[in-house]
Amino acid sequence: MQTSTIGVLLMAYGGPGSLDDLPGYLADIRGGKPTSKAVLNEMIRNYTQIGGKSPLLDITTKQAEALQNELGDGYKVYIGMRHWSPWMEETVRDMIKDGIKKAIAIALAPHYSIMSVAKYQEKVRAGLEMFGGDIEFEFVNSYNSAPKYIQALAERVQDGLSRWDVSERDNVHVIFSAHSLPVRILKMGDPYQDQLFETARLIAASAGLPESQWSWSYQSAGRTPEPWLGPQLEEHIKALAEKGIKNIVSVPVGFVCDHVEILFDIDIKAQALARSLGIRLERPPALNLDPLYIGALADLVKERIPN
After folding, report:
1. Most buried residue among 43, 112, 141, 147 by CB atoms closer than 10 A?
2. Rounded to whole angstroms, how far apart are CA atoms 193 and 182?
């Protein structure tokens, strides 16, 4: 029988709240390594084109509020960021002060990797150590096949296809994508790519897409010399153009809300490339506050709390 408040920690990557935040934000991502002026200026240009800041915090806050309403009494939902305010460690401090003894931690990234979700979890443990807490955290490692999450994305596919006349829809190609990571994770036995491919197959099946009508690509690879998982979205679009594809729906499955990897990398950069190749590219809305996605998060919490 539940007798005390259960904490729910939504963990996200973080993003700059203004252009002035960019130098510090990039420094944190790069582990304190200096950012070249050229890269900083490029990032300033990119963020300027999407409104001068990341919408991640605003949307994550609203997702947390929606989840709180879905869960109701007996739960308190918090948010913590890996690379910007509100810092994960400080959110853990707040949970300790609130007297939370048991908590469920969910990354707003459905696919597990030791280079992504595991890093979020390390921040939580660091917060407990830093502030002397004894909260019993249960981590949700992944939820790449959660039924409501899959259903929500299948509806995005149908939304995208519906933007063409019925007679044209069989000729529309769907690209699923997620953030690239270094290729070396494959040798480490990391489950990231396998989980992504499973998600794509489940969405395609739910949306009724034949194998010939969808494909996979990665996007937003980092700026390091080592090889990253591919094909990259831009190169994949070029390859599809060479095959005569003229209509594309982009459905990023690894991102659960709008931020720079969607608003710039897809809506501006990939869109410009598509236009230059004579391709019509459509992107349905990100999950954001979709009730199905919020319901998927609520299910993850409730599954871990005994009646």
Report:
1. 112
2. 11
Q: What confidence score (pLDDT) does residue 1 get? A: 39
DSSP bridge partners of 251: 176
At which residue do the structure tokens 């506050």 appear?
A: 289
Asked if residue 196 lies in contact with residue 253, where contact means CB atoms within 8 angstroms, the answer is yes
Evaluate whether 113 touches 191 at the Cβ level (below 8 Å).
yes
179 is in an annotated binding site: yes
Domains and CATH numbers, the chain: 6-143+290-302 (3.40.50.1400), 147-282 (3.40.50.1400)
Q: Is 65 annotated as a binding residue?
A: no
The stretch 100-107 carries a mean pLDDT of 98
Q: Could you tell me which residues come within 8 angstroms of residue 175 by beta carbon, excluding any fewer than 6 positions away?
A: 214, 215, 216, 217, 233, 236, 237, 240, 248, 249, 250, 251
The per-residue pLDDT for range 4-36, each reduced to its tens digit, is: 899 999 999 999 999 999 999 999 998 888 899
N-term to C-term CA, the chain = 6
Kindly state the tokens that stand for 108: 């707003």
Give the C-alpha separation, 285 to 302, whole Å: 27
